[in-house]
Specification:
This protein is an all-alpha fold. Helices cover 78% and strands 0% of the residues. The protein has two domains: 1-44; 51-275, MetI-like fold. The two termini are 46 Å apart.
Length: 283
């Protein structure tokens, strides 16, 4: 018994500093993450009833909003992939100077809040905005394009905000790829396109899946951009939850919808984690 006590004492002494350093982060997570989620769960099952979940999953309005949210999130993820993959490739293959310059341009929007950027897009995409006035002056269109208060405006704003979250994971994976593999493939008779398709692209797929996961999950909970650029005509789950709380004061139903969204996000993350066999690192 004394031997066991001595061993435990030595282990506690060895890990004591680590435990002491971990107390504050653990308390931070418990207070600001675990507790709010538990409160959300309690709101959603008010009086022990699952009626709010039943309504959220069977009512036509909420099902339609849920499907619209999934559709927009998927489209945003695909557009970010189509734009982000070439950008990540350019950054990964550029010289240090141009790579640093490209990263500066990519990170520049992070210095401005999402709200300010969204208002900027409202000015740019409006009927009398910069973009439409330029098209009219150049004679490209006869009347202003409808780019605001619709899905198009929401997609543009969300892609602008989320594009870096696609570029960073792909870039980090691309930097790990040995470019000599492509040279070896071309030396064995493969064309540049074949070497890219059969060697480079498969090696960068973990970054693609990680970026798709990040962009899709973040898109599911977007609120400011759909609310402003959508003008109330593009309904996503975040906007619907805010409306349930602000207009109808139905906290229980809003909590149930939020819990469903949380479950979907966790399910998507678990799926991609299984696809990648646990490799979702991108730093």
């Amino acid at each position: 018994m004394s031997v066991l006590t001595g061993v435990l004492g030595r282990r506690a002494g060895r890990h004591g500093p680590a435990l002491a350093l971990g107390i504050l982060p653990i308390a931070f997570l418990l207070v600001l993450f675990v507790y709010p989620v538990l409160r959300l769960l309690l709101f959603s099952v008010e009086n022990g009833s699952l009626a709010h979940f039943e309504k959220a999953l069977t009512d036509g309005l909420y099902v339609q909003v849920l499907l619209a949210t999934f559709e927009i999130a998927i489209v945003v993820a695909v557009i970010c992939l189509l734009l982000g993959y070439p950008v990540a490739y350019l950054l990964a293959t550029a010289s240090p100077f141009w790579a640093g310059f490209g990263f500066a341009l990519l990170l520049l929007p992070f210095w401005t809040s999402v709200l300010v950027r969204t208002y900027a897009w409202m000015i740019i995409l409006g009927r009398n905005g910069i973009f439409n006035r330029t098209l009219l002056e150049l004679g490209i269109v006869d009347q202003p394009l409808a780019l605001l208060h619709n899905t198009t405006g929401v997609l543009i704003g969300m892609v602008h905000v989320l594009l870096p979250y696609m570029v960073f994971p792909i870039y980090s994976i691309m930097k790990r790829v040995d470019m000599q593999l492509l040279s070896a493939a071309e030396g064995l008779g493969a064309s540049s396109a074949q070497a890219f398709r059969r060697i480079y692209l498969p090696l960068t797929l973990p970054g693609v899946f990680a970026g798709m996961t990040l962009v899709f999950i973040i898109s599911l909970g977007f609120f400011i951009t759909p609310a402003l650029l959508g003008g109330g005509r593009v309904m996503m789950i975040g906007v619907q939850v805010e409306r349930l709380v602000r207009q109808y004061l139905d906290w229980s139903l809003a909590a149930a919808v939020a819990v469903i969204l949380l479950a979907v996000a966790l399910g998507v993350a678990a799926f991609f984690r299984r696809v990648l066999k646990g490799d979702l690192t991108w730093t």
